[in-house]
Amino acid sequence: MQSLADESVVVIGAGVGGLSTACYLANRGADVHVIEKNEQLGGRASRLEEDGFRFDMGPSWYLMPDVFERFFAEFDRTPSDYYELTHLDPHYRLFFKDGDQVDITPDLERTKAVFEEYETGAGDALERYLDKSRENYEVGMEHFVYEDRERLRDYVDLDVARQARGLSLLGSMQGHVENYFEHPKLQQIMQYTLVFLGGSPTNTPALYNLMSHVDFNLGVWYPEDGIGGVIDGITELGRELGVTYDTDRPATAIKGREGAFLVETPRGPLRPDLVVSNASYAHTEQELLPAERRGYDADYWESRTYAPSAFLLYLGVEGEVDELAHHTLVLPTDWQGHFDQIFEDPQWPDDPAYYCCVPSETDDTVAPDGHSALFVLVPIAPGLEDTPEIRETYREKILTDIATNTGEELRDRIVFEEQFCVRDFADRYNSYDGTALGLAHTLRQTSLFRPPHRAKGVDGLYFVGGDTTPGIGVPMCLISGELTAEKVLEDHGQSGEQ
Fold it and tell me: Which tens digit of pLDDT belongs to each residue from 298-334?
């Protein structure tokens, strides 16, 4: 077994990718110290707790349970050692702004019947679509997600070509979905996950139809204590493996070299052999490294396509919110305009698509008795002007939109409120232009076209998280941690027992 028993590692940033990498490296014997800029662990998966309300501030969907099972199995554990899961029914609810409402449930036959109501033959088309999605998921995960193919030549051999045969690798999600469904609402149902990938139907590769297998076949779950409970579980696992954690300790510079790094912090320097950065890739290169050691210049980061930022309202309200499911999406009947106002002509959306999360529908510990906890997330372009006046205007717009399109009037029942937007993402997470997620999953920013796990300009420095492969989302960042650890082991592991 490869061992890192003689290596000390500082992981900068305690997001999911950093926490995952820390577990893998500690399990191989490394002395791992995680430092985090903010007051709590989890990165974008932070929690907000106040006045008896608790909110997941970032990720709130527990998808791809197989990825979590695989992660914990690497350490001879199971997710249930740390948290329990509830299978949501419905998985989610959709409100279209022309008055239609659709619940997607764990019962595929019921969902096929709903599809059939919109378009003759759409039920069978859904089954064919999900068969293709399952194939893409199984082949894609095994051969293109868990295997990090970081060079073009990694794709041009017979084995890879055989595995890739039949996968929907090229084309857009819009074109792929149109091959199965004509009705625009059915197309939207199959594409809503693009919001979580940080793309649009026209700029996201068709390969990501695999997310429909995640959604319809693997199911949507709620972990005990929310995504924050998952972070607690991963952190506890890390402690069991010997990882140490430091919050309120940002890195301010990375100096030195492999075997003799110096990571500067306001509470004194750290001197590890190796460094893994889970901070924003652009922030690490542009702010923490000297210019001569950067792998990419400022023009590179300026030229990238970034996933949306978000306007978020965290709300504690009196009473129930029965019209809303745990996961609720509100969509305009033509949502291309919203995507255009994110990617093509950046501005605050005129007719926004948005997401409401109501964990109190499932978990009675997140709100005081007689109250509900929910948050509203509106995807918006990164880099938008974000002032108190704009926020207040948009708040009123969204609360009115919720009342109009879901029938749930919240305004007069709000007893707790906090907002989060572009400036907050930039300040709290050092994210480029206040993006909520990082680099979008466009065709030119997928797989080997994302920045690598090994730093280009500094031996012994590695990157992990949503800007690297395999990309955005909690499951992908867990896997990113595994891939980064593999690079460290390839470069520094020693044969023998720990």
Answer: 999 999 999 999 999 999 999 999 999 999 999 998 7
Is 480 found in the same domain as 414?
Answer: no
The confidence score (pLDDT) of residue 494 equals 87
Q: Give me the domain span that covers residue 455.
A: 8-84+224-303+440-492
Please check whether residue 348 lies inside any domain of the structure.
Answer: yes
Torsion-angle region of 208 (φ positive above 0: left; ψ -120 to 50: alpha; else: beta): alpha
Amino acid 320: pLDDT: 97
Residues 329 and 192: beta-carbon distance below 8 Å: yes
Q: How many CA atoms lie within 13 A of 469 on its CB side?
A: 24
Can you tell me the distance from the alpha carbon of 440 to that of 207, in angstroms, rounded to the nearest whole number? 14
Q: SS in 3 state form for 318-329?
A: ECCCCCCCCEEE
Tally of domains within the chain: 3
Greatest alpha-carbon pair distance for the chain in Å reads: 67
| Same domain? 117 vs 190 | yes
d(CA 99, CA 76): 49
pTM for the whole thing?
Answer: 0.93
Residue carrying structure tokens 């350490």: 75
Question: Is the distance from CB of 34 to CB of 43 less than 8 angstroms?
Answer: no
Exposed / middle / buried, residue 267 (Cβ in 10 Å: 0-12, 13-18, 19+): exposed
> Considering 429, 449, 483, which residue would you say is the last residue of a domain?
429
Residues 296 and 336 in one domain: no
- Residue 104 falls within a domain, yes or no? no
Q: Are residues 266 and 334 in the same domain?
A: no
Whether residue 406 lies inside any domain: the answer is: yes
Residue % of the chain over a pLDDT of 90: 76
Other beta carbons within 10 angstroms of residue 390's beta carbon come to: 15
pLDDT tens per residue across span 200-226: 777 676 667 778 888 898 999 999 999
Report how far residue 31's alpha carbon sits from residue 17's, in angstroms, rounded to the nearest whole number. 17
Domain final residue, candidates 393, 410, 429: 429
Is 139 within 8 Å of 169 (Cβ atoms)?
no
Give the pLDDT confidence of 275-292 residue by residue, as tens digits: 999 999 999 999 999 999
Burial (Cβ within 10 Å: 0-12, 13-18, ≥19) of residue 39: exposed
- Angstrom distances, CA of residue 231 to CA of 49, 62, 334: 15, 12, 37
Helix (H) or strand (E) holding 380: strand 371-380
Contact 434, 191 (CB under 8 A): no
